[in-house]
Structures are given as structure tokens and as C-alpha cells.
Write a structure and sequence with these properties.
It is a single chain. It contains five helices and seven strands, in the order αβαββββαβαβα. The chain has a single domain (about 1-125), classed as 3-Layer(aba) Sandwich (Rossmann fold), CATH 3.40.50. The strands form two sheets. Strands 2-1-5-6-7 form a five-stranded parallel β-sheet, with helices on both faces. A two-stranded antiparallel ribbon has the order 3-4. It has about 130 residues and is an alpha/beta fold. The chain is globular.
Length: about 130
């Protein structure tokens, strides 16, 4: 899994699908974790125009082409739709945060040749998130 994580982190730009304005939610903490590490990140939220000072896009299909890695923090049924969009958008790396995984979404990533982290690894732990 270490190799998959390394490949994920080599992206030029990242996105957080399921980004939240609520600072107690993981969708917000993961976004802030990228910011703490100085990594370029785009929040994906269907209605919010901005989260943590960053402009949002409403779906994966609207992400800039330099986004190659996405963190998914959504319920499993939503994750399946997100993965379908990610495949269409040519996303190369998907990190399903703990609780976001679903067997069909995992299989879809594998079938599409996407580098996948869905083993319970948490981006917050790997990157050393600290509450601010």
C-alpha cells in the first residue's frame, strides 16, 4: 500500500470529494490537511461556492485537468457515483477515506486501472494532520 500512497501523493494537484464547510467533519479536515502540507487542492461540493477560502467545483467532471488524485469522503452509495465520474474524467489515483469504500466502487477502480487506496488508510494519519 505504501507504493500506492506514494504514487497518489505525486499528483500535481488534488481534490477532496465530499468537502465540507463543517470543521468537525472529515471532509473539511482532509481539505485542511492538504492545505497544511502546502499541496494544491480543489474542494468538490455540489452547492458551496467556497470552502476554507478555496473555490469549489460542483462535480469531479469540472475538475481542472492537472488534478490526478482525489480523496473521497462520501457515503458508499455516493462513492460509487463519484468513481464513475472519476473514470470518465481520467483521474489516475483514488483514495477512499475509511467509511467511504464500497465493493462496487473498489472493483470499478481496479477494472479501470486506477491506483487505489481503500484499505482503511487515512490521509490525515499519513500526512500528519493537526487540528488548528
Amino acid at each position: 500500500m505504501e507504493k500506492n500512497i506514494q504514487k497518489f501523493l505525486e499528483s500535481r494537484k488534488f481534490a477532496v470529494v465530499g468537502a465540507s464547510t463543517d470543521r468537525s467533519k472529515y471532509g473539511n479536515k482532509v481539505l485542511r490537511c492538504y492545505q497544511q502540507q502546502g499541496l494544491p487542492v480543489v474542494p468538490v461540493h455540489p452547492v458551496q461556492p467556497q470552502i476554507e477560502g478555496l473555490s469549489c467545483v460542483s462535480s469531479v467532471s469540472e475538475l481542472p485537468s492537472e488534478v490526478e488524485s482525489i480523496s473521497i469522503i462520501t457515503p458508499p452509495a455516493v462513492t460509487e457515483k463519484v468513481v464513475d465520474e472519476a473514470i470518465q474524467a481520467g483521474i489516475k489515483n483514488v483514495w477512499m477515506q475509511p467509511g467511504a469504500q464500497s465493493p462496487p466502487a473498489v472493483q470499478a477502480c481496479r477494472n479501470a486501472g486506477i491506483n487505489l487506496i481503500a484499505d482503511g488508510s487515512c490521509l490525515l494519519v499519513v500526512l500528519g494532520y493537526r487540528e488548528s
